Amino acid sequence: MNWKKITAIVAAGTMMLLLAACGTTSTNKTSSNKTTAQVPSSAKKSDWNLKVVNIKHQVNAKFVPTLTTVDNSQQLDSRVVASYNKMKAAAKAGAKLVAGSGYRSYEHQEGVMTRNVQEREAKGMSAAAAKKDALKTINPAGSSEHQTGLAMDFVTPAENAAGSDVTQAFAKTAQGKWLKKNSWKYGWVLRYPKNGKSSTYIDYESWHFRYVGKANAKYMHQQHLTLEQYVAKLSK
Ligand SMILES: [Zn+2]
């Protein structure tokens, strides 16, 4: 066999392999299209409602969104108030939602961290251990999504009446269950799900919901994606 023939055979073989690969890819694509939702075509990483704020993506200390007061107590970015009110109205029959904590300024977030560290120290933790434990569910100033005005921590009416803070027990309340199941229909997502820590850097928070817009929320909910994972998908 001469080199020309060998080259031709190898080339033909390579072509068949390539075709086979293409065939497999397109078959997978076709079948997955039937069962998998498509990434919203208009979604862009730079969209205001997809803004990522976490320990690695900080928000400027001076950043203040245009705010509107909701529930006579908390503030949200004015652009998300209509969807927030719709969600509350829909939940009302089975689960009266109460705003626990919405927008926080840089200084407010600093105060939240200080208070939480002090509470832990009062229970006997060392300063270092208290800080480490607080950081599991609280972002330091500059890294909190609450500074965007796009997030809300919910409490139950009973917790609110008692003036108490968010608790892990919220997941088992009617409010927690309703939000987990339905918030996406109004453009809000459970921001820190179980097993989401590798991308969010925050433990499970059953009370913290974030506005991302209806189409994005639907996709994220169906595909079980955190905001970080979803945005990474968009930039690819
Ligand atoms: Zn929160």
The strand order across the widest sheet is: 3-4-6-5
Query: Which cofactors or ions or other ligands sit in this model?
Result: zinc ion
The top level CATH class name of one domain: Alpha Beta
Report the average pLDDT across residues: 86
Structural class: alpha+beta
Helical content stands at 40-55%
Q: How many β-strand stretches? A: 6
Termini gap: 46 Å
What does this structure look like?
Its EC number is 3.4.16.4. InterPro entries: DD-CPase-like, VanY-like_core_dom, VanY/YodJ_core_dom, Zn_M74/Hedgehog-like. This is D-alanyl-D-alanine carboxypeptidase. Keywords: Carboxypeptidase, Hydrolase, Protease, Signal. Residues 74-214 form the D-alanyl-D-alanine carboxypeptidase-like core domain. With 236 residues, the chain is α+β, with helices and mostly antiparallel strands. It has a domain at 44-105 and 144-235: Muramoyl-pentapeptide Carboxypeptidase, domain 2 (2-Layer Sandwich). Helices cover 45% and strands 12% of the residues. The chain is built from 9 helices and 6 strands; from the N terminus they run H-E-E-H-E-H-H-E-H-H-E-H-E-H-H. The chain has helices at 3-35, 81-91, 106-122, 127-134, 157-162, 174-182, 197-200, 214-223, 227-235; strands at residues 67-70, 74-77, 98-101, 151-155, 188-192, 205-211. The strands form 2 sheets. Strands 3-4-6-5 form a 4-stranded antiparallel beta sheet. Strands 1-2 form a two-stranded antiparallel ribbon. Strand 1 and strand 2 (74-77) form a beta hairpin. Helix 3 (106-122) crosses helix 4. The longest helix has 33 residues, at 3-35. The radius of gyration is 23 Å and the shape is globular. The protein starts with a helix and ends with a helix. The structure holds zinc ion. The site of zinc ion has 4 residues, from strand 4.
